[in-house]
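User: Teach me something about this protein's shape.
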Amino acid sequence: MIAKVISSKLAISLMFAVVIVATMPAFAIFGFYKSVIVMTPVVWTLITTLMYSLKFIVYTSILLVAILVYADIAFPWVMRKFGEIFLWVDMED
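Assistant: First, the predicted structure itself:
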């Protein structure tokens, strides 16, 4: 059986690519949060302040849960891909 061997430079490039691919959904999550939370009331009354505060608390809680769930999915995937990359690295390079 022929062993697949990659150079250390290619391994570093692959690791950067894995990290970039893994962070792209996080930017989408933060972009959605920013688009939702930026809309502040024009006139601050008691009702608009309460509604904005409630909206801020709910959306921030949803953001935190989304980031936690995303991190629980993305981090093991990245570690597995790093393991696959390190499996094929040529240490003699």
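Now, about its shape. The radius of gyration is 21 Å. The chain has two helices and no strands. If you'd like, I can walk through any region in more detail.
User: That's plenty for now, thanks!
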